[in-house]
Specification:
alpha/beta, Nucleotidyltransferase, domain 5, 8-stranded mixed β-sheet, 6-stranded mixed β-sheet, binds adenosine-5'-diphosphate
């Protein structure tokens, strides 16, 4: 079995796989917050929460000990001993330019992930903590790092270099990296299989994938390779997000500093946690709440929804131009999979680039894990809804990397 671990600053998510089948999963929350006094671990087997552990979890190592405990619990657990875990896959946010695909974790890989902490100060450190905790407890089990940035390493220089002095890229590594790569890759593979079955060979396929969740991004994928992504140096660029501003004139932060006397910490907080859907609507960062408020007549909530969809439309158009065509648009993640009214608005007026929505199909996308086609039968381009599964992608990569090495 393969254990997938995804550590955030105060959380540890895990999922156990047997092949492609998810065996069980869980989440430890509030790890290390106020010393981890109020941490809770919820373990799910089938669709039910079968165990809930409330215990102090001062760090990820302690949280991982509780994960091990619930996994091997004689009553609720799904494995008898840790020896059943053949490999562990770790989500790592930043792999810089070094990692273009998933790799077996060794001391050198750990040192490189450490080096990229400077580029992803909020994400790589907790990812590393997860790796270290697992290494301590499972010293002989092979571990694989799956990077959010790796899929986008195929972007050409004209897409990833900013209009700054070139030394900023060469010396200081300031460039566009793109994120959400594991999700974009997962749905792109599913979409590619679908299009291939429709007679469009992989090497000719031009796809735009829209990952619309709390964080949101659009990726242009040509022949199965990412050629552009709306997220850049950090996951702040591009679309409007739950609490992040997305695209912004770079002079705005300068104005905040100079004219409004804000410091870097305050500007960071404003752009990352107080902006986006939340900042514009004043209601919530959660799209469901914002849509509800808009329906109830809140004009700022409506404006937030309009800006969100407008940006997605702009990026789809831009990427169709960048690729010189478009065979399919894919919607995924919380909003992309569940909000028909948002999907409709994101492709509104895009008939001129071959995207014609079928309203009835769009309104009746179900909960199954299949590819749902929501474009009209006479639409030149396909519009697809594909549920993402980053954990499954990590599990597959982990099994493949470990098998390759065993050969
Ligand atoms: P994360 O980026 O945290 O993984 P998700 O992919 O779970 O986020 O997406 C969360 C977003 O999806 C929230 O804004 C939530 O409101 C939105 N969402 C989920 N279901 C719906 C729905 N039925 N209609 C509109 N938005 C939805």
């Amino acid at each position: 079995m393969v254990l997938v671990i995804n550590c955030g600053s105060s959380s540890l998510k895990y999922e156990l796989f047997e092949g492609d089948r998810s065996v069980c999963s869980g989440l430890a929350e509030r790890v290390g917050v106020d010393g981890g006094e109020h941490a809770v671990l919820t373990h799910e087997y089938g669709d039910e929460a079968t165990a809930r552990v409330s215990a102090p979890m001062p760090d990820h190592t302690v949280a991982f000990d509780y994960v091990v405990e619930v996994l091997t619990d004689p009553e609720h657990g799904q494995i008898r001993s840790l020896q059943e875990i053949e490999a562990v896959g770790h989500r790592v946010v930043h792999g810089g330019e070094q990692f273009t695909e998933s790799v077996l974790i060794d001391d050198e890989v750990i040192a490189a992930i450490e080096d990229f902490c400077e580029l992803a100060p909020l994400h790589n450190p907790p990812n590393l903590e997860g790796i270290r905790a697992c290494r301590q407890r499972l010293p002989d089990v092979p571990m694989v790092a799956v990077f959010d940035t790796a899929f986008h390493q195929t972007m050409p220089a004209h897409a990833f270099v900013y209009g700054l002095p070139y030394r900023m890229y060469q010396k200081h590594r300031i460039r566009r990296y793109g994120f959400h790569g594991t999700s974009h890759r997962y749905v792109a593979i599913e979409a590619a299989q679908y299009l291939q079955a429709k007679g469009i060979p992989l090497e000719r396929q031009k796809i735009v994938t829209c990952h619309l969740g709390n964080g949101a991004s659009v990726t242009a994928i040509c022949g199965g390779r990412s050629v552009d992504c709306s997220l850049g140096f950090t996951p702040l660029e591009g679309l409007l997000m739950g609490t992040r501003s997305g695209d912004l004139d770079p002079a705005v932060p300068l104005h905040l500093i100079r004219a409004m006397d804000m410091d870097a910490v305050e500007v960071d907080r404003l752009l990352n946690t107080e902006s986006g859907l939340l900042g514009i609507s004043g209601v919530s960062s959660d799209m469901r709440d914002v849509v509800q408020a808009a329906e109830d007549g809140n004009t700022r909530a409506q404006l937030a929804v309009d800006i969100f969809c407008y940006r997605v439309r702009k990026y789809i158009g831009a990427y169709a131009a960048a690729m010189g065509g478009l065979d399919a648009v894919v919607f995924t993640a919380g909003i992309g999979e569940n909000a028909p009214e948002i999907r409709r608005d994101c492709v509104r007026g895009l008939e001129f680039i071959g995207l014609r929505l079928d309203e009835a199909s769009n309104n009746s996308v179900g909960d199954d894990r299949e590819v749902a086609v929501i474009s009209a039968a006479n639409s030149p381009g396909y519009i697809l809804v594909i549920p993402t599964d980053e954990e499954l992608m990590i599990a597959r990569d982990t099994a493949r990397v470990v098998a390759d090495i065993a050969e």
